[in-house]
Amino acid sequence: MEKIKKILRSAISWVKKNPQEAFFLGVILLIASVLRLYKISEYMTFLGDEGRDAIIVRRLLVEADLILIGPGTSIGNMYLGPLYYYMIAIPLLLANFSPVGPAVFIALLGVATVFGVYYVGREWFGKYAGLAASFLYSLSSVVIIYSRSSWNPNIMPAFALTAVYSLWRIWQRRQWKWLLLLGTSFAFMLQSHYLGLLLVPTIGLFWIITFFEIRKSKLEIKNFVKYSFLGLGIFVFLMSPLAIFDARHGWNNLSSIKKFFAERQETVSARPWNALPKFIPLSEKITTRLVTGKDEGAGGKVTLIVSLGVFWLTFFALKKRGQEVNKKALLLIFSWSGNLRPLLRVFLCGPISSYWCGTWVYK
């Protein structure tokens, strides 16, 4: 309770010191809330997947039928973990088993993600960047559409942002307890969609970088390894229901995952170089969906402008100003959005890739 009071006092103090910034942030969050919650019962998507989820979670609440697996994937004959089902259980109960309850919860999570984009953008690149990024993210048509209904991939942007920001706190601030949040958020990511595996190289890279940076301090190494194992333990615990189910059924799910990422399928391939010619068209496609409201003409222009802007920021602005923190933030972002996201764009298609990449487009 004391921590909550401390947070509230800190927030009130910040508002008093930054009234204009607080005002614009409030307006952005209000816009995001209205666009996601206005007549949500009429505009939300409720099809077969959503109906199945509501029935399964209702059985959990009414019959105490514990859930070991989550939704099945559209291709690959795989199953996700059950975290999403447990996550929407309380909203469904509070709404008297109406599917509007989970949809409202997802919408509120979407608003929280808008704030997260602002917060991370502000810390990394200043208040103007944070406000601009959150404003654009709050208005994105694709993001709004997928924030208005209860569907397992819709929670991924929030947890992807949390995971990468946790890496930042671990790498730059040596706050090892964030390893616990990293393990938690990555488990939620992976159980919202298996494309969360694409974050593994980034996590591994910055874990190794951090380890080598602190290797001369025995105390730091001890705490780092300790919390790394604790974070891994949380991750394993959250993934254990799916592992238990898979062990009971001959590891069919694990076999499907291996096949899914090893062979060319509809949405993913382990051989992205075979589709490199699609890089530019898919880059424009994602930008068109996220930024320009599906206006293809404007999407191509915005893609060019953003690309030139990133080039200028990276090779000229930072070199001139010498802002070391910004360089490190860009390194973290580019390890994901500048390395893995082009691969994602090349060998992925459809709204899931666009929605997941959204937070990084607006950085």
UniProtKB/TrEMBL annotation:
Cellular component, GO annotation: plasma membrane
Example GO biological process: lipopolysaccharide biosynthetic process
Entry keyword set: Cell membrane, Glycosyltransferase, Membrane, Transferase, Transmembrane, Transmembrane helix
Keyword Nucleus: no
GO molecular function, one term: pentosyltransferase activity
Protein location: Cell membrane
Cited Pfam families: PMT_2
Protein name: Glycosyltransferase RgtA/B/C/D-like domain-containing protein
Taxonomic source organism: Candidatus Jorgensenbacteria bacterium GW2011_GWA1_48_11
Organism classification: Bacteria, Candidatus Joergenseniibacteriota
